[in-house]
Design brief:
The chain is of the alpha+beta class. The chain is built from four helices and eleven strands, in the order αββαββββββαβαββ.
């Protein structure tokens, strides 16, 4: 019995020593669960510390942009549907236009429209869909969604046909292109942003590729 008691005492002492060493190396609370095992906060704490260190090591990096071309889209008089189940709906037909720039040039094919939703706070949801035709004859389907925001005063001036500086309102889009032309697959494989301007007789959209 003495030998058994001695072994038991030594096991308890070794167990206490191991736990004490862990407490020194990893200053976390030991939490016992049941009789068959135990888990500690050590794994969680170390994981969180490593994750924090990794996140802190990442330096913010702004994306680079490449200017591609500028769209000049001619529009017809809007059709006002009034308040629908989705909001104040207005449809602006696309009459034609052109585009040119260092990456591409061609014409805007007549047809398509801008299916807008106008919100009471001055935000206009843009959902424009139409077709482009390059000077080489390639066809490109364009869906250009975005937001335009202006104060009621600025909105009234634009509606009256006044040329308003784009610094007085917010107008940004996210063009998405679809084409089967082999030489234009870079448009399918990239993301784009549009910087837009509402003019009396057309809408200008500068298209930038996110690198």
């Amino acid at each position: 019995m003495r030998m058994g008691s001695g072994r038991l005492t030594r096991r308890r002492w070794l167990g206490a020593a191991v736990i004490g060493a862990l407490r020194v190396a990893l200053p976390v609370r030991m939490t016992a669960i049941g009789m068959e095992g135990a888990v500690t906060d050590a794994t969680v704490a170390v994981g969180q510390e490593m994750k924090g260190a990794a996140v802190k090591g990442l330096a913010p990096r702004a994306p680079e942009l490449e200017y591609c071309f500028e769209l000049s889209v001619q529009v017809d008089a809007p059709m006002d549907l009034g308040e629908t189940q989705h909001g104040h709906r207005r449809i602006v037909p696309i009459a034609g236009g052109s585009f040119s720039g260092p990456k591409l040039e061609g014409v805007v094919v007549p047809g398509g429209a801008d299916w807008q939703v106008i919100h009471p706070d001055g935000v206009v949801e843009i959902d424009t869909r139409y077709t482009l035709k390059t000077k080489d004859g390639a066809l490109i389907y364009l869906r250009n969604a975005g937001l335009r925001y202006a104060t009621p005063e600025v909105t009234a001036r634009m509606a009256a046909g006044e040329l308003v500086s784009p610094t007085q309102y917010y107008f940004r889009t996210s063009p998405v292109f679809e084409t089967a032309a082999p030489g234009l697959q870079w448009m399918v494989h990239s993301l784009f942003v549009g910087v837009a301007e509402r003019r009396p007789k057309d809408v200008s959209v500068q298209v930038w590729r996110v690198l």
